[in-house]
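Q: Here's a chain of 277 amino acids. Please give me its 3D structure as tokens.
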Amino acid sequence: MKFIKMHGLGNDFVFLDHFSDSADEDYPQLAKKLCHRQFGIGGDGLVVILPSKVADARMRIINADGSEPEMCGNGIRCFARYVYDQGIAIHNPMRVETLAGVLTIHLNIKDAQVQGVRVDMGEPILRADLIPVLGQGEPVVGERLEVSGETFQYTAVSMGNPHCVIFVEDFAALDFERLGPAIEKHTLFPRKTNVEFIRVNSPQDITMKVWERGAGPTLACGTGACASVVAAVLNHKSERTVTVHLPGGDLWIEWGLDNHVYMTGPATYVFKGEWLA
């Protein structure tokens, strides 16, 4: 089974190109094997390229634990670069089908090379029942969250997948490895949640640590960066165009006046090979 490895700011994925030859695979089980960092290729998730009846191509993403999220911001940038480079989708902008809907992607091309990818992530979802979250208020902004003996204020946003955004002053005082999984599985979130801890550096600049639903700590999360900027605006902590610093690098997020969130960042090849197991 041939594969290619790609990453977006260190958020890494194993790609299977099944666009022309759709395989009858148990992708959740395959993801657990391929993404294992000792016994497999290693990755935060498995991305499968498939044909679409409503867009240029369809993306399925399976987390390393076998769960299937609705969307992945870093994954879709890598997906767009791959399908363009392979001639699968030659339109620019292109349209990609995901479980979160059909997204429009603009490629920054210079000298026939993709230099960066800008994704129209659509409108943020702020209705509690659609995120979903069992929180008070509409939208759920600055609400109380009690977990592991501590109390936080959180804001809930969905970018096609659920996010719990918490603003902190000092990452050093944060017990990230304990709080991340506890909040991910908190009873407030019926479908679990991604967790973003945010330090606001200025109205145009924030730093983020993320605990991804189904993957744990990752170097970057595109939907999380988008959700965090939306949360920062709703809490009057930032402007609508923000640089987001993640452990793996920077993303540029804009919450436009059209209510769409736009994410711009890199997509990088690592290596290709053949899975023999």
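Q: Can you summarize the key feature?
A: DSSP finds four helices and 17 strands in the chain.
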